[in-house]
Amino acid sequence: MTVSEFEEAVGPDRRTFLKRLVIGAAFAAPVVASFTMSGVQSVFASSPRSTTMTSNGNTLPPVSPPNFPTEVGPCYTVGRGAIDYPLTDLMGTVQIHLTGLAGALPVGTTVCIYRADLTALSSVVPAGQTPVSGYAVVWNSLTGGAPPDATSSLTLTVTDPSVVAGGPIFLLDKATGTNPTVAGTATAGSWTVSFTQDPPFVVTIGTAGGATTGGATTGGATTGGATPAAATPVIADPDFTG
Amino acid sequence: MTEQKPQRVDGLEAHEVDDGYVVYHTATDRVHYLNPSASVVYELCDGERTETEIEDLVGAAWEMAEPPRAEVQACLALLRTEGVIT
Questions:
Q1: What is the pTM assigned to this prediction?
Q2: Is the CB of B74 less than 8 angstroms away from the CB of A1?
Q3: In angstroms, what separates the C-alpha of A192 from chain B's closest C-alpha?
Q4: How many domains does chain A have?
């Protein structure tokens, strides 16, 4: 059989999309990750050359952090296999990838991603800046008490067309969702953060003016440096490594 | 090898995302994320092709020397378990 036979086999309405999928990556074993809409149960299938399944339907998702009220997609139950945590948000306009979970958190830990309330964060970010994108990653403890730190960094990448190059990424206090601290800068259309603690909050501020981080202060919710025109929230914490 | 012809069930909403499909199944209120190869398998489950033909087409799509029969079979089994195909 040939590639052209494959192309003829799929419907014309999906042909272009499927061709792009095929051309875009080498073959990898099929992965089907299934979730209930409640987000309480998650079932994943993944491994390099076979399809296997693990599940944990008994772990309640972590609590959403202040100013990050909206759960994005289903929560993820950490398994033993290395698997990315890909999600889309806002009608597919935002792509979210959380990586580094396997081995970093105990098997069975539930990890959730929450979207920021950008309106609420408008009064949290420094004056003159506008949040344009914001997410928080949180996870629970399997034994009660505070969530454990990850043993290695998790990395969150958000692809969001509203993010502007140079926009500062703000880390927020995990208990209050306030007190922004500049923790990095975004690139055009995306931002990336790495962290080890739950719940790491970050706010990235999309800017037309090329914000800098030079004047950032901790705990004071101000940045003394650049004054970007637009903004975005994210995820991080005092152990922010990205 | 099998002559069974998998077919997607009714009530599925397949949404194209960057790296595959996200399929919502209204009857079960479940969401399924399919990576690229699983998306191709899903798309080929139109009730017109045997499982062997689907395996061959997946191999053809990626120009593989041998069709990934075991992987496709595992995927079909999982989709069946989830009630996405019959």
A1: 0.48
A2: no
A3: 18
A4: 1
